[in-house]
Amino acid sequence: MRKYAFAVTVVLAVGTALPLSAQISSPREGTYFAFGLGAGVTNIDKCANCGSEGTSTSFTGFFRLGGTMAPQWLAAVEVGAWYQSRGGYTAGLLSVAGIGTFYPLSNGLKINGGIGGMVFREAFAPNDNTANGVIYRVGAGYDISLNEVVSISPFVDLVYGPDLDQKRNRLATFNDMKLVLVQIGVSLVRH
């Protein structure tokens, strides 16, 4: 019963806060920037026949700088990162992508997508593995205005690298690596 009471409280709080935040409209003009933090879940497949390495969850973040093309369209360059370290094993990725954001409705809902490049590295003595290549990004979020130019935006993103060139201990392998990263977090946006 306590779970239901908590769920109802959250729904009522969010439901009453959204109309209040809608009264403060964000003009979405000129230059904008955003940064976000959250959790990222990766799934890595190092070769077509050897199956997935399993999932791994850790911290993720991004910084985005861009401009307003029209009130509903934004374009930006984004730098993103994911990092994990545990028991002598470290893994991380760094990406740079061009991102387009579309606001289909006037209520703060946004959809984004883009394409870019990524470098992935994992180290577990004595091995040092790297991969790089093209990534594709899609995601969605919802801007909750704090004032006329600043909003908080919960988001979910999917980063997909289908054919990353892989090296083991600096030697090229014959296998391409596939990487999927799902990010869930909160960003701060300034229009």
Describe the structure.
With 191 residues, the protein is mainly β. It has one domain: Porin (Beta Barrel). Helix content is 11%, strand content 71%. An 8-stranded antiparallel beta barrel has the order 1-2-3-4-5-6-8-9. Strand 5 and strand 6 form a beta hairpin. The longest helix has 21 residues.
Question: What distinguishing features does this structure have?
Answer:
elongated; disordered N terminus; 1 helix; 191 residues; 11% helix; single chain; mainly beta; 8-stranded antiparallel β-barrel; Porin
Write the layout of secondary structure elements.
Layout (H helix, E strand, L loop, with lengths): L1 H21 L8 E15 L6 E19 L2 E14 L2 E14 L6 E16 L2 E16 L1 E2 L4 E19 L2 E20 L1
Short description:
The chain is mainly beta and 191 residues long.
